[in-house]
Amino acid sequence: MKIRSIVIGSLLVASSMTTTYAGLDIANIAEDNSVSLTLNMDEKRFGITGGCNTIMGGFEIDHLDNFVAARNLATTLMACSEPLESMSTRINSFLENHPKVVRQDNNLFLVGTIAEEPTSVYMPVVLDQGQYKDIKAEIYERIFIYVSNEKIACPSNPEAKCLQIRTDKNEPWKPFEGIIEGFSPEEGIAYRLRLKEYNKGTENQRWVYDMAVEQEIVQ
């Protein structure tokens, strides 16, 4: 997704839901918007999901709003497809180049560069715990769901394909027509996910991907 921007002083605010610099059109680091960085400001820890494996570690944000990841980062150890492996390589390069923390309204992003790529990209930031400047983390509940390796026709639109989910492995699968933010399932893989549920029981309820607790290739 490309984004148009307008200048406000040294900061450029996009007409879409992001922020950029230097009058450039900035693309999301992932075309499917599956990659995001979660910040715990209380413990100065972060995690990135959406590549092959979750990347975790400490960080600092310097006086110029540059995001500086710790040198020794941890990662989960799951086997992944080549496209996801490639995304993880791009994410690591993005971090090594110390992207800048950019704010638009109450939304946070990292904007930076990747080695051997000519243009800047952005990565959405989710504030998980604590506060960044005057932006406070939203309250959420953690929930767990199972996701089938097979999609089915959506009840409201048979031409579209929907995930099948359940909360208990002994329950029948149910079609899910909503969105799990930050989750991009691979074909043929079944998952057990840990999610963040915001605004439970309201019209603004939403699910955000936290981590894959289990995943299995189903033949």
UniProtKB/TrEMBL annotation:
Pfam families: DUF4377, META. Residues 1-22 form the signal peptide. Keywords: Signal. Residues 28-111 form the DUF306 domain. Residues 146-200 form the DUF4377 domain. This is DUF306 domain-containing protein. It comes from Wohlfahrtiimonas larvae.
